[in-house]
Amino acid sequence: MKPKVIIMAINGSYRSKNNTSILINEAIKGAEDVGDVEISHFSFAGKKINPCTGSCSKYCKKNAECRQKDDFQEFVENWKRQQDWKLTKKLNSLTDNAYFIHPMPIDRGNEVDDELASSPRSIIYDIAENRLHVQKAVMSLTMAKG
Which domain holds residue 21? Predict the structure, then answer.
């Protein structure tokens, strides 16, 4: 008997109609077609999320919650229900030879087994490096004397 699969789909973009939302919606439809799947979907689009000021870290650690009350709490509650997840080679074997696709940074050992992340069926994009080059170019252009 196959174990029930639990999927938490997260769209981290603040734009509501983007390529990520199209991909996530198609993946959810495919998972629903398989059956015996529990799916939760969280999108950051349209949410009000304040940046952490760092001034309340003692409060957050002591009370295990954030002092700021914004839409991020909805994500945290959703996340807490999914705390025991990790993508493993065994879970991936339940798929039809699926690829593991993830943008960096990746939390090896916690969100995915190192063995799966290093496998030939793994595609990990180093988007952070590209962002760094763009940021440096923007800074050079905006800070240049001229």
Answer: 5-143
